[in-house]
Structure formats: structure tokens, C-alpha cells
Design a protein that fits this description.
Layout: H1 18-24, E1 25-30, E2 39-44, E3 47-51, E4 55-57, E5 62-70, E6 78-86, H2 92-103, E7 106-114, E8 120-130, E9 133-145, E10 152-162, H3 166-177, E11 180-182, E12 194-199, E13 205-210, E14 213-217, E15 225-234, E16 237-248, H4 255-263, E17 273-276, E18 280-281, E19 294-304, E20 309-319, E21 323-331, H5 340-353
Antiparallel strand pairs: 1-2, 2-11, 3-5, 4-5, 5-6, 6-10, 7-8, 8-9, 9-10, 12-13, 14-15, 15-16, 16-21, 17-19, 18-19, 19-20, 20-21
């Protein structure tokens, strides 16, 4: 049984000397199959390839393309590299967390690494019981555009050992999962190209939207506001929508008034349950986009039994000197059956991080 009271270390800085690394590690090159799957990884000298022929893990929709194990003396250590091709853009961190949930991994430590334009990545330590043994694994992720068929290849590497040996191996595992990359990495680490969107009703604004999303203008817009709906259609069905309203600055006193006016739209559904977080006013240093100084967000769920309506709700509000910019994402709740929630969340993130910032500059 897993001992819940154990606190595992989570080193993030390597302490091995250069001479030790040169004497005890080797650079493994994986060059089987398609070029866009080729990678390199730094492994301990006694960790060697065990299985390099790809095999599919159906329950995870993953293809394992590398399995390496310790051959000689010392505690058990196994390294695996796997990937999934997916046609739509999402955060690699969200992609991996979905896989971890399906596997029943318990996250005990993590750090998020924010890419300038390519979204969030993750370095995560997990534990679970397998065959009566407590197992600890550390994962990191990569993402790369697939030049042959579009979309992205989402990759992860996992280094695994028994829990009793983890502290002894923790820095070796750190060395493995933070020293690997693709050999033929493309110049575009996203699943989709981006389309610029521009509007000048309130003031000139521009931002990016993933190419698979369609923008529709609401003809009910007037001189007080403008409304665009961004829709994501997959196989003929709407799997996500981002409703955006742009208002003049004098339309609302504060973000709370704006949120309340928008929530009132839903109250025509008599039995609608609205469960939302408190409105969060982000600190300036927390906002990745340096061209945004005033940003609020709120999230939660909307549920109606009579309408068979169950949706996740995320809203982000940007305030400039001239206007209010309200972005509201409504779509499926997080689940283990599809990636619609992850795709919707990533689209909203791209819109906010590129708002009047098409170079994806980041705040220092």
C-alpha cells in the first residue's frame, strides 16, 4: 500500500559535476520510423534499450516508441518515451494530466513551464501502486507540429523506480527527464496555424485564434457594444464556443458589474444551477501578456436538468483605457473521454496572450 505520509523530494536543479556526467551517462539516439519521431535522451550507462519497436497502449491512445531498463547492479530503473498525434492545439500540460488521470497516477509535485507562444508544459512527480509495489515516476512533455499530416505530436518521457529507491535515484531521474529533445524539431511547436483577428469598433484590437475556430459576427451588435462568437466544430458538431463582447469603458463601473450583466443572460433557464468561483483580479506580475494591465477571470459550471445542459464556464475580462473586452468560454466539462475542454481552454489562452500582442511578448 502507498504510504500517504511520505514526502518525496522534487529536485529541479542538477548537482552532478560535469566529469561525473561524462563518465556515467550516454546519449541515446532514437532513429526508428518517421523522422518527426526521432529523439535523443541522456541515460545512465547501465540503462539500455529494452524495446524500440512501437507498440500501442489503446486505453491511453499512446504509442510507446522507446523502453529502456537498468541492465546490471543497482535498483530498478525504467525509462519510456511515448507520443500521441492529435489534430488540435492544446497545452501539453493538460494533455499529460489527462493521461495521468486515466492511469490513476497521484500527482505529488509539479512545476508548470510556460512557453512564450506554445502554451504550458509540465514536469510532474507521481506515485501509484502496481502489483503490490509502490512506484514513483517523473514525467516531462514535448510538443511539435507534424509536417506530414498536420496537427501535433504530443510526447512524454517517464522515468520510473520503486518508491524505496526514489531518493537515491532522484537526481538521476531529474537528469533523464530534463535532458531529451527531438532530433528533427520543426519551427512550429503547435498543432495548428494561427489566424489573426482584428476589430476596430471600440478601438483597434487584434489577437490570434487557432485556425480550426470560426468567427461569427452577431448582427444584434450596436454602437454600445460588438459581439463575436468563435466556434469550434468537430465532425459537424459544436464542441466549444467563445462568446466575446467588446464594450466602451463607460459601459460598466467595474468587472463585477460586467460579469453580473452577462450571467443574467442565463437566468431565462428556470432550473439553471450556476456555480462559479469568486471573481479573481490578477496581479500584474501574474499576467503573461505585457500589454494587459487589468485582467479578471472567473470559472465554474452551469447545469440544467430540464435542458440536459451541463457545461464548463470560463470568463476572462480585459480592461483598457477605452474598452472592456469580455471573453466567455462555454463547453464540455473536463472528462476522460475527449479533449474538448483542453482545446477550448487553450484557444482562450491564445486569445488572451496575443491580445494586442501578436509577437507573444512576455512580461519580465
Amino acid at each position: 500500500m502507498i504510504d500517504k505520509n511520505i514526502n518525496y523530494s522534487f529536485p529541479v536543479e542538477q548537482t552532478y559535476a560535469k566529469d561525473y556526467l561524462q563518465g556515467n551517462f550516454w546519449k541515446c539516439l532514437y532513429t526508428h520510423g518517421e523522422e518527426n519521431l526521432h529523439y535523443w535522451v541522456i541515460l545512465p550507462n547501465n540503462v539500455r534499450p529494452n524495446k524500440l519497436e512501437p507498440f500501442t497502449i489503446n486505453e491511453l491512445s499512446l504509442t510507446n516508441i522507446g523502453q529502456y531498463v537498468r541492465e546490471k547492479e543497482g535498483p530498478y530503473l525504467e525509462v519510456q518515451v511515448a507520443y500521441e498525434h492529435y489534430e488540435f492545439e492544446m497545452n501539453a500540460s493538460d494533455w499529460l494530466k489527462k493521461k495521468l488521470a486515466i492511469m490513476g497516477e497521484e500527482i505529488v509535485a509539479e512545476r508548470i513551464i510556460k512557453g512564450k507562444s506554445t502554451g504550458n508544459y509540465i514536469d510532474v512527480l507521481c506515485r501509484r501502486e502496481i502489483g503490490g509495489n509502490d512506484i514513483v515516476s517523473r514525467y516531462t512533455v514535448l510538443k511539435d507540429y507534424n509536417n506530414r499530416k498536420g496537427g501535433a505530436n504530443y510526447f512524454c518521457i517517464k522515468a520510473t523506480c520503486e518508491a524505496n529507491d526514489y531518493e537515491e535515484l532522484s537526481h538521476t531521474i531529474l537528469q533523464i527527464v530534463t535532458n531529451w529533445d527531438l532530433i528533427h524539431k520543426s519551427d512550429w511547436q503547435m498543432a495548428e496555424l494561427l489566424t489573426p483577428f482584428m476589430d476596430e469598433h471600440i478601438e483597434p484590437v487584434k489577437f490570434f485564434v487557432p485556425q480550426s475556430w470560426d468567427a461569427k459576427f452577431n448582427n444584434n451588435s450596436d454602437h454600445n457594444f460588438v459581439n463575436y462568437i468563435f466556434e469550434h466544430t468537430i465532425e459537424g458538431k459544436n464542441r466549444g464556443a467563445i462568446n466575446s463582447f467588446f464594450y466602451r469603458a463607460d459601459a460598466f463601473q467595474n468587472a463585477e458589474d460586467l460579469i453580473n450583466s452577462q450571467i443574467n443572460r442565463f437566468k431565462v433557464i428556470n432550473d439553471l444551477e450556476i456555480n462559479l468561483s469568486e471573481i479573481n483580479a490578477m496581479e500584474t506580475h501574474e499576467i503573461q501578456n505585457p500589454h494587459i494591465e487589468n485582467l479578471h477571470d472567473i470559472s465554474g459550471n452551469l447545469d440544467s436538468e430540464s435542458e440536459n445542459f451541463h457545461a464548463n464556464f470560463i470568463a476572462v475580462i480585459i480592461k483598457t483605457n477605452i474598452g472592456w473586452y469580455y471573453f466567455e468560454c462555454i463547453g464540455p466539462k473536463p472528462n476522460l473521454q475527449n479533449n474538448f475542454w483542453e482545446v477550448n481552454r487553450r484557444c482562450l489562452q491564445i486569445m488572451i496572450n496575443s491580445f494586442n500582442n501578436l509577437n507573444f511578448d512576455t512580461r519580465d
